[in-house]
Design a protein that fits this description.
The chain is α+β, with helices and mostly antiparallel strands. It is built from 14 helices and 7 strands. It has 2 domains: 7-227, no CATH class; 262-427, Heat Shock Protein 90.
């Protein structure tokens, strides 16, 4: 290419290709979950430092090797990569990157390359530990001087050097040092031109190369932060929904006990014992998701109270549970509102009582749950109102929507005098944004 371009044109083309190279390397790195995690690690362990060295060291070594062995100057990102690694990982990471990343240069007689790389790594590591907020690193921009005049005045009035300014000055100083050392001492790769415009482009390329990588890494960090905030919001909503269920459930259970205190004290004591077991479960368990087995145990305790209240001749329970479904994780208190509605609104108004059916099975890779009763049923004109205003039904529908999005179903079928059926299908695995 140098045969067809002037030296200045060749330098400019080299700079442009280098920008593409560093952007490509950064784009590949942010696809790895381990590297994403390292971007959040402020105080890295030795294992973290070693992992970061592998992620950044391999591209740097390859870049210098390609330049030395193939003569492709645009591939060399040793200065920018070392400075970037030191800013993220600290002095040790920077020193190792700078030294080892430039070892291939020895094949080309560039004996000053490893020592210069060491200087770059230590300089970047110094900025890493410099006092100030760590988040300032991710706000770096080569065009920091275009900020509002008020922020610049504030920087000088407080005599606190902005992290962007320090990175800017360090990158310029390192590039200048490389050029001067290469011209005076030799044995060091550098780009140079006698034209001022091209010289400015050389320094700008170093700044922009570092800036592009930081911006790409920062964008990845922000995406992860948004996902974490979304997960926290979901958990907060779930906790709020569960907090609505528990008082409603306890209120109805206490009513059942109150109705038995005068007529049958022994039954009331039995109910209180069962209630204490339920309360212990509710208070001790802070899990948002439990195995279906535990959810059914809670339902059994609740139904024991209702059976003792209504009598075995009026309230019967039938269960068909697939053993393979017992360990599937489900939202805590998922079935309780449905069973409570079946007892309170389906069977309680029916003089002869009836039966509650609980079924759970794995179908087509999903957990299918059905809660049904043969009670008085719900008129079709009231089904929409129940879905909208019923505390238990509305709460269940909202929780499923928050947790699973569109990857679930929740349907109710009811016929007056024939009963009501609630069907739920959910994935076997919890969504990644919840876990």
């Amino acid at each position: 290419m140098e045969r067809y371009l002037s030296s200045d044109q060749f330098v400019l083309v080299t700079i442009l290709v280098k920008l593409v190279v560093i952007a490509s390397v950064a784009a590949v790195l942010v696809r790895y979950g381990t590297f994403k995690r390292l971007l959040f690690s402020d105080f890295k362990t030795w294992r973290d430092k070693g992992t970061l060295l592998l992620f950044l060291g391999i591209p740097i070594i390859l870049s210098t090797a390609v330049r030395v062995l193939l003569g492709y100057k645009a591939a060399d990102i040793s200065l920018e990569g070392t400075l970037l690694g030191a800013l993220i990982g600290g002095r040790i990471v920077g020193a190792v990157l700078g030294t080892c990343g430039n070892l291939p240069c020895l094949l080309n007689g560039e004996y000053l390359a490893p020592p210069f790389g060491l200087v770059v790594g230590l300089a970047g590591g110094f900025l890493h530990v410099l006092s100030g907020r760590r988040e300032d690193l991710w706000n770096f921009s080569p065009l920091f001087f275009l900020r509002s005049p008020s922020s610049i005045r504030q920087m000088f009035s407080t005599r606190h050097l902005d992290r962007s300014l320090l990175i800017f000055l360090t990158a310029v100083a390192l590039e200048l040092t490389r050029i001067l050392a290469g011209k005076r001492l030799g044995h060091l790769f550098y780009l140079y031109s006698t034209r001022p415009v091209v010289i400015v482009a050389i320094f700008a390329s170093t700044l922009v190369t570092v800036g592009i990588s930081i911006k790409m890494f920062s964008s990845t960090r922000n995406e992860i932060k948004l996902k974490e905030q979304e997960a926290l919001l979901i958990r907060a909503r779930l906790e709020a929904l569960i907090s609505q269920i528990k008082p409603h459930f306890l209120f109805n259970t206490l009513n059942s006990i109150a109705s038995a205190i005068r007529s049958d004290p022994d039954k009331a004591r039995h109910l209180i014992f069962k209630l204490s077991h339920i309360l212990r479960r509710l208070i001790d368990s802070r899990q948002e998701f439990v195995p279906l087995r535990e959810e059914l145990e809670l339902i059994d305790s609740y139904l024991d109270i209702e059976v003792a209240r209504f009598g075995t001749e009026k309230l019967r329970v039938a269960k068909i549970i697939d053993s393979a479904a017992m360990d599937i994780m489900v939202p805590a208190m998922l079935l309780q509102p449905l069973v409570e509605n079946a007892v309170g609104h389906g069977l309680s108004p029916k003089i002869e009582g009836g039966t509650i059916h609980l079924e759970a099975a794995l179908r087509d890779g999903k957990l299918a749950i059905e809660v049904s009763d043969d009670g008085v049923g719900i008129p079709s004109s009231r089904l929409a109102i129940v879905f909208r205003d019923g505390v238990g039904i509305n709460n269940t529908a909202e929780r499923l929507k928050v947790i699973y999005g569109d990857d679930h179903t929740f349907d109710i079928e009811s016929r007056p005098e024939h009963g009501t059926v609630c069907r739920i299908t959910i994935p076997q695995m919890l969504p990644s944004r919840i876990t």
